[in-house]
Amino acid sequence: MQTKKYDYCIIGSGAGAGPIILEMAKAGFSVLILEKGPWIKTKDFSKDELVSCRRDVYTPSKVDEFHVIESQTSDGEWRALATRDTNKNYWNGSCVGGSSNFMSAYFHRLKPNDFRLLSEYGPVKGANIVDWPISYNDLEPYYTKVESVIGISGEIRQHSTLEPRSTPNYPYPPLKTNVVSDWIDKAGVEEGYQMVNGARGILSKTKDDRSACYNSNYCGSYGCSSDAKGSSRVALLNEALKYNCTIIPNAKVFHLETDGQNNVVKANYHLNGEKHFIEAVTFVVACQAIETSRLLLNSKNKDAPNGLGNENNLVGKNLVFSAGGIGGGNLYFEDFSKEDAEKIKEPGSFVNRAIQEWYEIKEEDSDTKLKGGTIDFLFEHTNAIPKLARQKWNGTRLVYGSELKKNIHSYFTKQRKIKFEIFNDWLPTDDCYVQLDEKEVDKWGDLVAKVRVGYHPHDIKIAKYLAKKGERILERIGAKNISTGISGEPSPNLVVGGCRFGGNPNTSVLDKNCKVHSNNNLYVTDGSFMPTGGSVPHTWTIYANSFRVADHLLSNRR
Amino acid sequence: MKNKRVKKVKEGKDLFSNIEGWELNRRRFVKTLSITTVLSQIAVISSCVTKKNKLYQANQYVTALESEIIQKTQDVLFPDDGNGPSVIDINAYPHLLWVLTDERKDEESISYITKGIGWVEETAQENYGRTFSDLTQIEIEELIAFIAEKNWGAGWLSMILTLIFEALTMDPIYNVNTNEIGWQWLEHKPGTPRPNKDNSYINIFNTINAN
Fold this sequence. Notes:
The complex is a heterodimer of chains A (558) and B (211).
Chain A: E1 5-11, H1 18-26, E2 31-34, H2 49-54, E3 68-72, E4 78-82, E5 106-107, H3 117-121, H4 136-151, H5 179-191, E6 195-197, E7 199-200, H6 232-240, E8 245-248, E9 252-258, E10 264-271, E11 274-285, H7 289-298, E12 317-320, E13 322-332, H8 338-345, E14 353-355, E15 360-362, E16 369-371, E17 373-379, H9 384-389, E18 393-394, E19 397-398, H10 401-413, E20 415-425, E21 432-441, E22 447-453, H11 457-476, E23 480-486, E24 496-498, E25 522-524, H12 539-557
Parallel strand pairs in A: 1-2, 1-11, 2-8, 3-22, 11-25
Antiparallel strand pairs in A: 3-4, 5-7, 6-14, 9-10, 10-11, 12-24, 13-20, 13-23, 14-17, 15-16, 17-20, 18-19, 21-22
Chain B: H1 2-11, H2 33-52, H3 64-77, H4 92-100, H5 107-128, H6 137-148, H7 151-169, H8 181-186, H9 204-210
C-alpha cells in the first residue's frame, strides 16, 4: 500500500499531461504519474504493420476495454453499440506518452478568431458555441514554447490568415519534401492562393539525445525509432524522469476520492489485479477527452453524487471531434516524365503543404462571414494492407483471382495516391457527449463511457466547400480519379471537449486555469478543456495549454 | 440452410464486411509464450506444404477436409497465374493457421473463420451433392463464384483475402512473404527499422512487460 504523499499526481501521460509533468518535476516537486497503458520504449518500436495496425498492439483489447457508441441511424433513431462488437475503435494509443507516440504530428496553431467563435461569427442554431475565457495572446507564448521544447519544423510563409507570432520562424527547418510539394505550391499560386508550408512536430535536426527524422517511410500510426517525433514520452517525460518523477505503468485509475471539503485526497487505481491508491496535494487528470469525463463521472460519492465537477450536469457535454473529410486522386506515373515519376515514388519524403485561405469564408454577394478551415495535403499512407484492401471491392462485388492480382500490381507500381484532409469545426451540440453506460463494464468492473456522436449539418456544409478547393489543386498537379468523402463520421483520434473551461461555474466545468470549478485541487489538462475545437488538429494547442496551466500552478505554489 | 447462414452472420459482429474493419486486435498483455511455440510448429507445416505441394493433411489445427478447403479457396482467390507470387510462395496457408492459434484474437473472429470453412462444404453438398474434396477445379471455381455473390460468402472470402494480403506483405520474420517476394512484386518499400525478434508480434508483449 502506498503511503507517501506526492506534490502532484498526474493521471495520464500524453500531450495534456507531459508539459505539467516536466515543469513540476523541474521545479522540484515530487510527481507521480499513473498511466493505464504499458511503458513502450523507443527500442520496442519498429515499422511492423502487423504490430502497429493489424493487431493494434498499442491500444487495449476491445474485449477488455471498450466504449459504447451511440450513432444516429438514417431514420433518426439513436443506436448504441459497444465497440467490442463493431469495427470501431475509440482508443488512440494506451501507453506511456499516450497517442502522441503515434500521431502524424501535423501541427497548426489555433487562430485568434478560434478563441472568439461566438463573437466573430455569431450563433448557429442548434450549436452550443461560446467564446473561450482566454485569448490567442494568452496562449501565444506557450505555442512558441512548444515549438522549441517539443521541436517543430517548418517554414513560416506570409499568408492571409497567418496567426500573430512572437518569433519569425520555427526553430527547426522544414523536413524533406517530395517534388509534389513544389507542384502543389505552383498550383496554389496559379489559383491565386497563398500556400502554407505545413509545420510538423517532428525534428529535422538533432535535439539533445533525440535524432532527426530519417524518413522511415511509415510515420503516422507508428512509433518513432529516432525520437524525432515530438511525443510526450520522448520530448517531456524522459527529461522529467531525471528529477523527482515516477511513472507507474499499467495503473488504471478508477476513482478519485474526496474529503468532503472539495479536495481530492486519493487516486484509487488497479494494478496487477489489486487495488492501490496514491495521495497527493494536487491531482491532474489528462486521460484524453472521453476517458477524462468517464473518470470524473465514475468518481461520484456522497458529496458529489453526479460525479466530480458535475454539479450542473456538464461533465462529458459538448464533446467535439474534428469535422471535415478526405479527398484524393491518383498520380499515374505514365502521365509524367520518367524523371518526375521517380521523384514522385521517392519513399519517406513528406508533402507538408496546406491551405488556410478559407479559414474564414466570405459568402458571395453578402457581408456574411463563416468560419472555414484547413486543407492539408499528404500522400496515402505507404503501409501495404489498406492499399491492398481497397482493391478487393468493386462496389459491392468482391474482386478476386487474376483480376484482383492485376489491379493490385497496377495500384502499387503504376501510381501514387495524393490526398488532402479537411479540418473544420465540429460544432458542439447537445447530441455529442460522454456519459456512463448503465450496465456495460470493463475488465475491472468499472462502467464504460457511452458516447453519443451526433454532428451539426453546418459542419458538412463547410467541409464540402473546402473539398472543392482541395480537388482543384489536385486537378492542377495532374491527379486523376479525384474524389472526396465528407461525412459526419467522427475521427476518434481527434477528440476534445467534455469539460469545457469558462468563467461561469454554471456553464463550464473548469475555470480558465483548468481547475475544476467546484474543487480546490483537481485540474484537467488534456483537450477536455476546449469549448470549441478550431479548424486544425488539436495537439499543438493541448501541449501549449498544458504549459500554460503549469505556469499557473507554479505561480500558485510560489 | 442458406437463410440460416445469413441469419448467423447478421447476428454476428459483421466484423468482416470490410477489410478496414476486420480487426485481429484481441490481445491480452500476458499469454504470449505459446505464440512462439505455435509459430515454430507452423513453420514445419509450412515446409511440408511447400515441399509436397498442396498436401492436404490434417494437423492439430484443422482436419484434412478443412485444410483442403482453405488451400484450394486461397488458390482461387489469389491464383498462381504467372502474375506475381502464388499463395504457396507467400505461405498463405500456414499464416492462416497461425492466425487461428493467436491467443490474443477473440474467439468470435476465430469462430467466423472456421464456420466459414464449414459453410463452403455445406454449399458444395447442396449445389453438387458431393463433398468439396470430390469437386473438379472448374466446379470449385464455380462454387467460389457462387459463394462470392452471397453476402455471407463475400464477407467470408474477403476475410480470407485479407489474410492472404497479410502473407503477401508482412515482414518475412513471420514466415510469410518469403524472401520478400511480395514486396518485390509490388515494388513495395517497407518502413524502417523492420521488426526484430524482440519487438515483432511474437515477443512484443514479453518485451513490453519487461520494461
